[in-house]
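User: Batch of two.

Assistant: Item 1 of 2:
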Amino acid sequence: MSGSDVSGKRRVYLTQNQKAEMCRLFHEAGVRAPALAATFGVGRRTVYEITGPVTDGTRAARFWRNVDSATDPDGCWVWAGCTDSAGYAPLSFNGRTDRAHRVAIMLHTGRLIPHGMFVLHSCDNPPCCNPKHLRVGTHQDNMRDMMSRNRNAFGERSGPSKLKTAEVEEILRATKVGSATCAELGVMFGVSHRSILDITCGKTWAHIPRP
C-alpha cells in the first residue's frame, strides 16, 4: 500500500506480515538493510525502524525494569505499570499500541508477531510477561484455551454481567474469522445470543473499532 505525504513524496505502508517477514530476513537470514529496502520499496531508515526496536538493548532494558521478575524465574513476571480493566498492560511499541505480554515475547525472540496471531498465557494471568508462560498461537488456539479452562464462566463474566472492552474485541475478532458462532460466543462470555448479534451489528459497543 502506498500514499503521499505533505511534500508529495511516495510513501509505502507495510502490513504486519510484511514487517514480520522483513524482521525474519534481517535477523535470521542475514539480509542487509539496503537489499531489504529495495525488496520492500522503502528507505533504509524505515528498515532500521522496523527491525531495530525489537532487539534494541536500551529499549529492552527499559521495558524489563517494569516487570517484576525477581521473585521466581519460573513463576509469573507481573507487569508493574498500569493495566486495563481486563488486567492487560497497554503500551506503545514499534510505532503502535500493544500489550506488555506481547512486547515481552517480541523482545525475547527478537521477532515481530505475525499479523492476526495471538500471544497466549499458559498461566492465564494477563499481566504476566514471563516468556516461559507465553506462546504465539491462532485465534482458534485462544478460544480453545478459554473453553478448556472455563475462565469465562465465573465471577464478573457469569450470568447477566457486563462485558469488558477486551472481551468485546475478542468477540469481534472471533466473528470476523468465523472461529465460533454467536451462540457459542454467548455461552463462553456469559451473555445471550442476541447480545452477541447486537455487538457484531454495531447496535451496542459501536465505539469499538471493528477488526
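Item 2 of 2:
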Amino acid sequence: MVTVGLEEELMLLDAETLDLAPHAADAIAGLDGRFKLEMPAAQLEIVTAPHPTVAAAAEELARSRADLAAAVEGRFRLAGAGAHPFASGSGPLNPGPRYEAIGAEYASVARRQLVFGLHVHVAIRGADRVDLFTGHGEFSERVAGGMKQKGALYFLLKKEPASEPTPLTD
C-alpha cells in the first residue's frame, strides 16, 4: 500500500507592497493543524494528511489553500514559487526554541533560507520497504544530502514469538 502527503511552503506577502511579510505566526494563529510555521518568519506551510492517491492529496491541498487565503484576506497575500522576485535575500526567523537555536548556530546563513517549495512524501508500507532516516529538519536534510561516508543499514524483521519461553542463563 502506498500513501501520498504534500507539504507546500508559501510566502506571506504584504497585501499592498507584495514584499515578504514576516508575520506567519500571526497569520496562522487560531487555524488548525494543517498550517505550520517554517523557519523564515515570512513563510508558512500547508501539510496534508496521507492520502491513498495523488488526486486526493491535491484536493486537500487546494481546499487548504482556499481556507488559508480566506483567513489572511485583507491582511496578507500568499504566493508559491521558488524564491521571491525582489525581497531582500535575508529575513527574520520565526520564534521558538528550535529556530532560535538554528539562528544562533548558523547566524546569517539561517536567515538566508528564503526558498519555497512543494514536497511530496510517499510512504510504502510492507515487507519490501527500506528507510534511510537521518532525522528531521534542516540539519538532517544537510546530512542526508551530503553523505560521503559509508553508513550502516539495519533491517528490522518481525520475529515470531517462541512457542515456549527460553530460560535465561548466566
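The two ends are 44 Å apart (CA to CA).
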